[in-house]
Amino acid sequence: MQKEQTFISIKNEAIQKGLIGEIIHRLERVGLKLVAIKMVVPDKDAIAKQYPDKEWWYKQVGEKTKDSRQKRGVEDNRDIIEIGKWVRGMLLEDLVGKPQVAMVWEGAHAVEITLNLSGKSSFKNPM
User: Does the global pTM surpass 0.85?
Assistant: First the structure.
């Protein structure tokens, strides 16, 4: 079986709640191996690369956000591109200059396993 590698970032909020050890433990418990780890404080350029300033990204995130908000009873009449830009702005504001733990994990089906553990908030096929 082929090993995969996947990137996981523990964001500042989880760090402040003392969840680093629990997250690492969960990933190890499902058979993944930690192959790289470091604490970083990303600048705007680093975060902007993770959340691209591209129409396809705005559309994808805007659709997902609008659907999620509608399911919770929140009406949002904005265009999906506008919603996507709003989400990106919030992400930049929330993540820039705040510590994160950046990790690379390895194992069979590492991408699928981490998506399942994280609640699939990431995108499998961004384009």
Answer: no
Q: What is the pLDDT along the chain (127 residues), one digit of tens a residue?
A: 789 999 999 999 999 999 999 999 999 999 999 999 999 999 999 999 989 999 999 999 999 999 999 999 999 999 999 999 999 999 999 999 999 999 999 999 999 999 988 875 544 444 3
How many other C-beta atoms lie within 10 A of the C-beta of residue 66?
19
Residue ranges and CATH numbers for the domains of the chain are: 1-41+99-122 (3.30.70.141), 42-97 (no CATH)
Minimal CA–CA distance to 98: which of 46, 49, 61, 52? 46
